[in-house]
Amino acid sequence: MARDHGGNLDAAVARFGAGDWIDLSTGINRRPWPVPAVTASAWRALPTAEAEAGLIRSAAAWFGCDPAQVLPVAGASAAIQLLPRLLPGRRAAVLTPSYNEHAASLTAAGWQVSPAADSAAMAGADLAVVVNPNNPDGREWTPAALIALARQVGWLVVDESFADPRPDLSLAPDLPANAVVLRSFGKFWGLAGLRLGFVIAAPDLLERLREAAGPWSVNGPALQIATQAMADRDWADQTVLYHSEASLYLEQLASRAGWQPLGGTHLFRLYDTPDAGAAQDRLARAHLWTRRFPYSDRWLRLGIPGSPQEWDRLAAALRA
Length: 320
Known about the structure:
By secondary structure, the protein is α/β, with parallel strands linked by helices.
């Protein structure tokens, strides 16, 4: 199964030339949390249980759940690869369109995967996957709706990679026994290079995941940086406010260009364009990289610019 992704900036450079590129293809926060100096011990020594426990406490406070339900992993993508090999059953339903890695990983593990247009079409599946808010269109499901869905399936996996600005959507504080929540650290905090994510689930499943992932799956600098970042509520509040306002401004720019808004999250917006390929190429000639989707020749997704200079370049390219 095809596994296309944003962030393929090498392809843009190869086609449109090197230069000062602004990568809006990923939905990763372009105003990252400011990383302080990392201690020498975090670089030199293997991660300690104490360091991991500190991150788990910080993350659990952010998610609003019991620390015993939290496991750090090497990116949410690591859990997406491991879970299909650990959960029982063979019939999976994946809410579609959505992040394509879920269906691809399930298929690679031997599951029979059925696309589902809504939660009603997922009833009876051994495993159901919902991305909330959804990528790329930003569709949302309340915790009550997800709890109801969990009663109708064997296992429910909820990918909350873009949910940090929306705690009201999170299933973590009231997690059903057969539900698994995935969270990404790199997107909201803008530090994707740390390759850090979290699984929120029952402790017995977390122990099986820990064994499958192997020892020291999360590096020492990631543990130290994320522990501090997730406790910085002032930065988080300011970041949510910035992206709330910036999303509205991006809608204005896109509307002036003749694009129709289709939804999105705090970190990206999706648009219906007359020709997504032509629109992407036009922006790429200004060294602005965006995201297309193989199943639509009209959809184009843009992340949120991170500075006045980036906004000026995007506005100029959209006017051209």
